Amino acid sequence: MGLIENIKEKAKLELRTIVLPESEDERVLLATQQVLEEKTANVVLIGDEDTIKADALKCGANIEGATIVNPKFSDNLEAYVDELVELRKKKGLTKEEATEIMTTEPRFFGCMMVRLGDADGLVAGSNSPTADVLRAAIQVIKTAPGINTVSSTFVMETADGSFGDNGLILFADCAVNPEPNAEQLADIASATAATASSVVGLEPRVAMLSFSTKGSAKHPLVDKVQYACDILEERGVDFSFDGELQADAAIVDAIGAKKAPGSKVAGKANVLVFPDLQSGNIGYKLVQRFAGAAAHGPIVQGLSKPVNDLSRGCSVEDIANLVAITATQK
């Protein structure tokens, strides 16, 4: 059974409610049918009920069983508006402005559902830029306690089972932070370890990557990774980590043993934290193409509750898969 099949089986065990705010997209409606048929989540669609049902009929999607919420007529609208005003009071947001946002911006309404416990997670982005999805998530849901950085990870599923755990290895951050500082790298490491555990079911072993292993090179870029490791040590995190490590020292036993003897992570890493976005993005795409690996993600992490962003070129299957992933995030 592959990773996505395992995640879907896990999602079925504890059925959670996921908001899909972009109900105007027929792919979302078709994915709703798939999610409901697979029983991986309860689905909330946001918008006008008559319009959504007409659009579903037009594209042949059976959305019976989904909950449809029209923000303009929601019993929770006033509470959501008041909460947004409170969250944004330092920015001077008025009640009238908050009402406009809540009734015209389905991503904000959906994130507020998640924030206040009326849903467990949100998936969007098929019909909107990443910036719009993350803006709503960061402003409404906020980051997780002890984490100040929203980041992303890809779960790489490789045919060669000798790397990571039976071919599964997480790459972060490959989609959000261009030049993370040491504090942010430490946040990314903690968030990715949590994703490895909650979504993939792995015991995380985190390698903080660099072009140096254990002081083999001297450079400010190496210093940054070393400082990130110091921060993780000071925080007393509950997962195994080591750094700075070169990529081969992180994933190849013999090289890890030679370059970082005694390390609990070197040669055995199943989470790779890249020092910047360029290296992370390039790295996952090279592995995806050269090794024929499946790249599942990006999975957004670091938020207090799950929100995930789709590519605007996503397929119906992509949406259904990401709903299942979101339903397993904690």
Characterization of this structure:
There is one protein chain. This protein is of the alpha/beta class and 330 residues long. The protein is 46% helix and 16% strand. The chain has 13 helices and 11 strands. It has helices spanning 3-13, 26-38, 49-59, 77-87, 95-104, 106-115, 130-141, 182-200, 220-235, 247-251, 253-259, 277-290, 316-328, and strands at residues 17-20, 42-46, 67-69, 121-124, 151-157, 168-172, 205-209, 240-245, 271-273, 294-301, 307-309. Strands 8-7-9-6-5-10 form a 6-stranded mixed sheet, sandwiched between helices. Strands 3-2-1-4-11 form a 5-stranded parallel sheet, sandwiched between helices. Helix 4 (77-87) packs across helix 5 (95-104) and helix 6 packs parallel to helix 7 (130-141). The protein is globular and about 65 Å long. The two termini are 23 Å apart.
Largest sheet: 6 strands, mixed
Sequence stretches where pLDDT stays below 50 over 5 or more residues: none
The gyration radius over C-alpha positions equals 21 Å
Question: Termini distance?
Answer: 23 Å
Structural class by helix and strand composition = alpha/beta
What is the succession of H and E elements? HEHEHEHHHEHEEHEHEHHEHEEH
Order of adjacent strands in the largest pleated sheet? 8-7-9-6-5-10
How does the overall form come out from the CA principal axes? Answer: globular
The count of helical stretches stands at 13
Number of strands: 11
- Please give the share of residues in helix: 40-55%
Q: How much of the polypeptide forms β-strand, as a percent range?
A: 15-25%
Residue-averaged pLDDT, rounded? 94
